[in-house]
Write a structure and sequence with these properties.
This protein is about 75% helix and about 0% strand. The protein is mostly helical. The protein is flat, with a radius of gyration of 16 Å.
Length: about 100
């Protein structure tokens, strides 16, 4: 917040998921909820990134534009697509390791 003057929407979302799944774990006394949290976050990021890429919008451009100056729109689409696939792979890996 000090650097940008606002809090990132991704940080708000991650915080809400952490508090929500952590609260479910404590209330229900079932550790499965905290174990599913990474899968939910990764799947959500994957859906957003791949959904944006399918619509022709490189969603990562809104978050990382300053870090990758000079990257073309086609480059942002490829980067968003690749990271979307990576997040889905992480979600699948978490489910394999959780089982």
């Amino acid at each position: 917040k000090w650097k940008l003057g606002r809090i990132s929407p991704m940080l708000w979302l991650s915080t809400a998921l952490i508090v929500g799944f952590g609260g479910l774990t404590i209330m229900l006394r079932d550790p499965v909820w905290i174990q599913v949290k990474p899968t939910a976050i990764y799947a959500l990021f994957g859906v957003v990134l791949l959904g944006g890429a399918l619509r022709g919008h490189g969603m990562l451009k809104y978050l990382l534009e300053a870090a990758f100056e000079g990257l073309s729109d086609a480059g942002w689409l490829k980067l968003s697509r690749n990271w979307g696939v990576f997040f889905f792979a992480l979600a699948a890996l978490n489910e394999v390791l959780r089982a």
